[in-house]
Amino acid sequence: MAPTLLAGTNRSNPLDYAFVPNYSRMPARWESINDDRILIFTDGAAPNNGRPGVRAGCGVVTGPSLDSRHLFRLEPDVSHQLTSNRAELRAVEAAIEFDWKMEGIKTIVIATDSEYVAEGATLWIRVWRDWSGRWVVQKANMDLWDRLMKAIEDKEREGIRVEFYLIDRVWNLADRYAKAAAKRLHFTSAGLLEESPAISASEIYPK
Questions:
Q1: What is the mean pLDDT of residues 23-33?
Q2: Which of 174, 186, 110 is nearest to 148 (CA)?
Q3: Is the pLDDT of residue 158 over 90?
Q4: How many domains would you assign to the chain?
Q5: Rounded to 5 degrees, what angle do the CA atoms 112, 170, 12 make?
Q6: 194 and 167 in contact (C-beta within 8 Å)?
Q7: Residue 196: inside a domain
Q8: CA distance linking residue 204 with residue 207, whole number of Å
Q9: For the domain that residue 158 is a member of, what is the CATH number?
Q10: How confident is the model at residue 18 (pLDDT cuts 50, 70, 90)?
Q11: What is the mean pLDDT of the chain?
């Protein structure tokens, strides 16, 4: 079953959609009024898309402060060019793979400004693949789409629902982290169990 694209979002501020900050248990994330529902901002960036030497980065934000950010370079793949679409898919996969069941989470809401990711995962995936998961339409980035859908299906088997929330870029707290990650020279862990290395103000707020 494909995940849900939340209705009526209209690219509005996601923090207006029944989500409030809650620091009672885990400062690194935003919670909804119901403590078993979590909002996660994700984004990917490839500033030199399509050019030689391109680097791509991924950002995941689960809270309102800089201490709650997770950013990493998109891993190189000799079979695929590094693009912002691939970085966006990888960021969502990393966000979903965290052990949210341990935190008592039952619904994950991915806030993204990427129509490619949000509509692809909730609408077009039903056209691209048949009921068995076999691809009937050849698409770019099928390897990452397969990995993302497997991550979603694994969560569903754990009793965790995944939803997507399409927002405007101005509301995406992960945008600047993805861009900062793309500028880094070294790779860091993509696991959300670890905080990312220290990030400078110049990386987040370039002049």
A1: 41
A2: 110
A3: yes
A4: 1
A5: 70
A6: no
A7: no
A8: 10
A9: 3.30.420.10
A10: very low
A11: 78
CB-CB contact of 179 with 45 (8 Å) = yes
- The answer to whether position 197 is within a domain reads no
Question: What is the chain's Cα-based Rg?
Answer: 16
Mark out the alpha helices in the chain (DSSP H runs): 84-97, 115-119, 125-128, 142-157, 175-183, 201-204
**Is pLDDT above 60 for 97?**
yes
Average pLDDT for 2-14? 61
Structure-token pair, residue 196: 């990312």
In this predicted model, what pLDDT tens digit does every residue of 46-92 receive, in sequence order?
998 777 778 999 999 985 444 568 899 998 887 888 999 999 999 99
Q: Are 91 and 172 in contact (CB under 8 A)?
A: no
Say how far apart CA 180 and CA 80 lie, in whole Å.
22
Query: Which SS3 state, helix, strand or coil, does residue 70 take?
Result: strand
Residue with the two structure tokens 């110049």: 202
| Residue 118 belongs to domain spanning | 4-188
Q: Hey, what are 160's tokens? A: 């965790």
Whole-number Å distance between alpha carbons of 93 and 138: 21
pLDDT for 178 equals 95
